[in-house]
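Morning - zinc ion inputs below, output right after.
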Amino acid sequence: MGSGAGDGLRVERLELGQWGTNCYLLTCAETNECVVVDPAAEPERILAAIAGRKVRYIVLTHTHLDHIQGYTGVREATGAAAGVHPLDAPELPYEHDFALVDGAKLTFGRVELEILHVPGHTPGSVCLLHGQTLIAGDTLFPGGPGKTSDPESFLQIVQSIRERLLPLPDETVVYPGHGVSTTIGAERPQINAFLTRVREKTLCGDVLWAEG
Ligand SMILES: [Zn+2]
Ligand SMILES: [Zn+2]
């Protein structure tokens, strides 16, 4: 489990399930209220990690199977309201409680999270922003964007990253859905270099900025 602090928000990462998907626990350092992002699997490990905290919300960055296998277990045990973007909701085989739309704010304790709709990896992918903390889902990883299923989706994820994530300050820490964190400043030069190159129109799938 990794953890970081800043702006009164504590970030903890749990790697869960057979794909090692990241579940993030976001906790208000002052009030101990928290949000569970992507209850990927092993709900008992999530529940043990948040014991003693008040869970305000469960948030899904998107509805791929590797991000939702602990969803029902955590939702039923905590009674917390669960949110998903309307464009990904049809892919969620369970009920949810509210819609995560672009620009929406989620407040827990003294922390306010802003929802950024970043289509591409899936139509309803979202990132969560608080100060210099970005929970990125499968949209941005160290060295490349999230996987896309066709060239149109690839253009969409690149547009989402260019318009919504690149304007963030260099210090912004990016916590992806798999693996370790990076920063906007670390990613910016390779993304900018990629954007200035002429690219094949068929590009999609697992793409690295350096090779694309
Ligand atoms: Zn995914
Ligand atoms: Zn994933």
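Note: Helices lie at 43-49, 71-78, 151-165, 184-196.

O.
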